[in-house]
Amino acid sequence: MYQLDFEEFLIANNFGKAAIDHLRKSFEQKQSLAPEIHDKVLGFFKRYLLVGGMPDAVNEYLTTHNIVKVREAQEAIRILYGIDASRYEEVAARKLHIRRIYDMIPSQMENKIPEKENLYF
User: Fold this and answer.
1) 31-81: per-residue pLDDT in tens?
2) Closest C-alpha to 61, from 100, 97, 104, 14
3) Contact 46, 10 (CB under 8 A)
4) 3-class DSSP state for residue 81?
């Protein structure tokens, strides 16, 4: 099973096929959206950024619309990924080492914010 992309997230939130086709056509023709459509899609995009595309997190959001519960689902997924990352190592000490490296990824990413002059946008 793969994560949902933004279009699939819209579909899961009952965003109609005709509306999605209109978005795609507007994008391809480089046309602006009406402000009310733009605001609605932007709201969905912000929710997508919070919820992500992992099916369990999306299902939790669709069921409860509760971001705290979504974060709990995301944390459960993160923990399972950590377990899986070290599952195939047979040596216990190396399993622990792999798990520690996995757990350090978020803090290491926070430390690697590029300098302002190195940004390309």
Assistant:
1) 999 999 999 999 999 999 999 999 999 999 999 999 999 999 999 998 898
2) 14
3) no
4) helix
Q: Using CA atoms, how far apart are residues 40 and 65, in angstroms rounded to an integer?
A: 16
**Listed residue (54, 68, 42) closest to 12, CA to CA:** 54
DSSP letter string, 82-115: HHHHHTT--SHHHHHHHHHHHHHHHHHHHTTPPP
User: What does the block give as tokens for 48?
Assistant: 């997508």
CA dist 115 and 119 (Å) reads: 7
Both tokens assigned to 22 = 């209109």
State the Cα–Cα distance between residues 116 and 17, nearest whole angstrom. 40
Residue type, 98: I
pTM for the model: 0.75
